[in-house]
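### Sample
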Amino acid sequence: MLPFPDQPPAHWIAVACAEHVANGLAWGIMQVCHGKSAPLRRVKPGDRVAYYSPTVTFNRNGPRGDACQAFTALGTVAEGSVYQVELAEDFHPFRRDVIWQAKGRAPIQPLLDRLSFTQNRRSWGYAFRFGLFPATGADLDLIAANLTAIA
């Protein structure tokens, strides 16, 4: 018998531009914080994750005026552990496999007063700066209800 009982699945909000989320949907993966491994090690198989996309495209030099400000995908972390891939000679990001269940655009503005991490917060965008943070099951249920199912 294990010294600690199994933990129930956790719920996470990950942050990436919509273009990168679309790649993750196509490849069945998640990647956060420019490919760092430490944040992904907090996520376990069976956990649910929703992606928030502040912009449509990624720009290292700051916003390009292509705001998205919507949740763009929701899925469940698959069995397996964090792994590293080589995308370029100088870029070797870490990833986790995800079974995606929903995609689309669920704008955050109508949900601000109902999400636990934005409710009653003047600076509601602060949490997103971390790239990956915990949420509640109710938060992910609300996001899921506002995304379209994957066909």
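The two ends are 41 Å apart (CA to CA). This sample (UPF0310 protein CHR90_02170) is used throughout the tutorial notebook.
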